[in-house]
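Database export, one record per block. Field names are fixed; values are copied verbatim from the stored entry.
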Amino acid sequence: MKSLPALKKISFVSLVIIFAGCFSKPSMPLIESFSPPPEFSVMYGGEGRAYRYSGGKWTEDPSINYEFTVLKRKYEDGWESVKTIHRRHPDYEGYDQYASCRTLRN
């Protein structure tokens, strides 16, 4: 059996690795000025029903359902898309109430 100090060291290293992702670069790239105006934009939204695999089968889990919006901008050199997801159920077990991701232009 490992000694108590060794277990504390392993636990500390594990926590450092787990929380390292919390201090990574932002998901949106940094810019010094605004982008040029797009040729046009499209925005849409909706709701997503989520399922969890448990007991050998997929079952709907309302606690992880979500609402989303997508903003797509058309530029001369390609598209830029920004999707925002909101999980609003009070039993949602995630660490944050929203997530956002972005697809950069080609």
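Remark 1: Helices lie at 4-20.
Remark 2: The mean pLDDT is 76.
End of record.
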